[in-house]
Design a protein that fits this description.
7-stranded mixed sheet; 18% strand
């Protein structure tokens, strides 16, 4: 994607050949800043503090985090420690565990002297694969937006409602839920995005609005609870979100508030699509609501916010009475019955074990244990 005319990825190997450079998303939208992770602890902190976030990007940083750890100590015990450290940073997104298992499984077969080089190589492949995967999701989702455009007038836009940030900032490039939007925009289809602000971290207003604006895609920020009203007024043609973990039966776990959007879409006959790389599917889970762990984050994210003062200074601001307790559930689960379709790198399918099995026949043995 582009920032001020220059193409960027969210993460890349720095010029020194070992440290990991990334866009610091905690500084957006008021400052575009890049940073570096030079050690396992710095990579883990970047994930934990959400300087990098989004399921695919977390996986990429985890892969590089193992590479950094192995560069310092390539022993089995150090590898086990690094895996445990990174796995503990964000418990919900399955891409994190997938990337750790992938890289660790590869290097365990090698002598210690070869492990770091192999880990760096595999981390780079994971990044490249993510770009290709997200672009494929964009191509498959483009057909859904194109179909919606056929029902609009020549001067009307397809109105897409999204939640949180599932654009290129959440992946290495292209993104998941916004990849079809970017493809439609580049194809000349008129699109307009309703951007949920997505409290408490405001990842819609801070990140989605920022990246759409830099790419030139028309959009409007709305408060989280405005989506149902817009659907009632027939001002939303389709909803499109991402997911951090998807069950083998098609339940999706995404940023808190996604479930409420799906309910509103269901009540108003608005298609509700979820875009995901297959690395976010947890093939071991039958019931998303019962089995997916929901991350609970610092209550301070709810009781305070950060903004730019009139003088330009970036300041934290407390928005609740002193001493007020707060609960900060980061995700919720949307059951498969509320989802119109899943958009993957292999195509579009029903949110069900049968639908996923048609696209991923190599997983049918596992899927047979997860009836819809």
């Amino acid at each position: 994607m582009k920032v001020n005319g220059r193409r960027w990825r969210t993460i890349w190997l720095a010029d020194d050949g070992f440290s990991v450079a990334f866009i610091d998303q905690t500084r957006l939208p008021h400052a575009f800043v890049t940073a570096r992770a030079r050690s396992l602890s710095e990579a883990a902190d970047a994930i934990r503090e959400m300087r990098v976030r989004g399921a695919p990007l977390i996986g990429a940083m985890a892969a590089y985090g193992l590479s950094l750890a192995l560069r310092e100590d390539a022993s089995d015990s150090a590898l086990d420690c690094a895996v445990a450290t990174l796995a503990a940073t964000r418990p919900t997104a399955v891409n994190l565990r997938w990337a750790l298992d992938d890289v660790a499984g590869l290097v365990r077969q090698l002598p210690p002297a070869r492990r770091a080089e192999a880990a760096y190589r595999r981390a780079g492949e994971i990044c490249d694969d993510d770009v290709a995967t997200c672009e494929a999701i964009g191509e498959h989702g483009l057909a859904l937006i194109r179909d919606a455009a056929h029902h609009k007038g020549p001067d009307e836009s397809v109105n897409v409602l999204t939640h949180c940030n599932a654009g290129w900032l959440a992946a290495v490039d292209w993104g998941t839920a916004l990849a079809p939007v970017y493809k439609a925009f580049e194809a000349g289809i008129r699109v307009h995005i309703w951007v949920d602000e997505t409290r408490p971290r405001n990842q819609g207003s801070a990140l989605t609005a920022w990246e759409l604006g830099r790419h030139g895609v028309p959009h409007t920020v709305i408060v989280d609870n405005a989506g149902g009203h817009l659907m009632q007024q027939s001002r939303v043609d389709l909803c499109m979100t991402g997911t951090d973990r998807t069950s083998a039966a098609g339940d999706v776990c995404n940023k808190i508030g996604t479930y409420l959007k799906a309910l509103a879409a269901f009540d108003n006959d608005v298609p509700f699509y979820v875009a995901l790389p297959s690395t976010t599917i947890d093939w071991t889970i039958r019931d998303g609501l019962a089995e997916i762990p929901i991350e609970e984050r610092d209550p301070a994210e709810v009781t305070a916010t950060v903004g730019r003062a009139p003088g330009g200074e970036i300041l934290p601001v407390t928005i609740t009475p002193d001493g007020t307790p707060a609960a900060n559930y980061a995700f919720d689960v949307t059951p498969a019955r509320l989802i119109s379709a899943l958009i993957t790198e292999r195509g579009v399918c029903a949110a069900s074990a049968e639908g996923l099995g048609a696209l991923f026949p190599e997983r049918r043995a596992a899927l047979s244990q997860h009836p819809s």
